[in-house]
Amino acid sequence: MVATALYLSLKTRYNEEIHLKVEMFLKTYGTSKPTRYTFSEIKKITRRFKDKLGQGGFGSVYKGELPNGVPVAIKMLENSNGEGQEFINEVATIGRIHHTNIVRLLGFCSEGTRRAIIYEFMPKDSLEKYIFSGNYIVPRELLAPEKMLDIALGIARGIEYLHQGCNQRILHLDIKPHNILLDYSFNPKISDFGLAKLCARDQSIITLTAARGTMGYIAPELYSRNFGGISYKSDVYSFGMLVLEMVSGRRNSDPSIGIQNQVYLPEWIYEKVMTGEELVLTLEVTPEEQEKARQLAIVALWCIQWNPRNRPSMTKVINMLLGSLQDLQMPPKPFVPSDNRRAP
């Protein structure tokens, strides 16, 4: 009984400290923040959490409708051990920015231990659903090479804006297909800024106490400083992995494949590019479409170089995607550190 009472007392004090931390942030954040809703209003917007859209790393997402009829997605932050930091990260980053390839934050709720983020509703769900269509009742035909290129360009422009277009540089640190949402026209929008890091635009290297992100998309330098410093190039790496998955229709780390038979996705794609083999095996495509897939693959292979200095900036990535295949140099083999070949 004493232990239980002590636990409840400590938990209450801990929750109060987090609440004060969040309120202090909101107070200093300024008047430009999105609309603040009460938890009672959130329940009305979601019709008492009737329509669950999915589960994310920090909580559940529900469909709702604002009083003016605008459809929205509401993320309820649950069971979080981030001391309110993921809520602060989301509001501090996308609360003030507007870009066609970044999901809009329309409001939030912070009431006691309850916290929610309200986004614009993305009707086509996440990119993950279309890349790995074997796991969903979704035709992969929707991701023809031309559309892949459009989506890759949209994501690249969104990341470039985060890195170069804001008052402070924003490192997303969790770029992956699940966090790319699609609107009615299949335009991609970057979402889920719970792990994001703000830094000065002229700050080249940042410090983190622990690796952030999702296995398979985390840049090597987040695991070990031997590979270089953590910077905006870490997002470039994650983008490269995402593009490789989109081109191949395969996960970069697939637990369903036996360890003995597993071929690392970047190496598999590199060999196909080198030998001129077809990359898009799940669709019937024209020679022109194969060229687009090859272009995407080469750009992605540059993005996942082990040494961050050898990866292109997102501005350079956009230029490479808009340019011609003939202008692209073949990068070094993935995951073989190379100091003498920099991004073209």
TrEMBL record:
Residues noted as binding ATP in the record, renumbered to the chain: 75
GO MF annotation list: ATP binding; protein serine/threonine kinase activity
PROSITE patterns: PROTEIN_KINASE_ATP (PS00107), PROTEIN_KINASE_DOM (PS50011), PROTEIN_KINASE_ST (PS00108)
InterPro entries (UniProt xref): Kinase-like_dom_sf, LRK10/LRL21-25-like, Prot_kinase_dom, Protein_kinase_ATP_BS, Ser/Thr_kinase_AS
Transmembrane segments: none
Pfam families reported in the protein's UniProt record: Pkinase (PF00069)
Entry membrane topology: Single-pass type I membrane protein
Keywords: ATP-binding, Glycoprotein, Kinase, Membrane, Nucleotide-binding, Serine/threonine-protein kinase, Signal, Transferase, Transmembrane, Transmembrane helix
Record-level GO cellular component terms: membrane
Domain of life: Eukaryota
Subcellular location: Membrane
Entry keyword annotation includes rRNA-binding: no
Keyword Glycoprotein set for record: yes
Coarse class of the protein's main subcellular location: membrane
Membership in a protein family: Belongs to the protein kinase superfamily.
Protein name: Protein kinase domain-containing protein
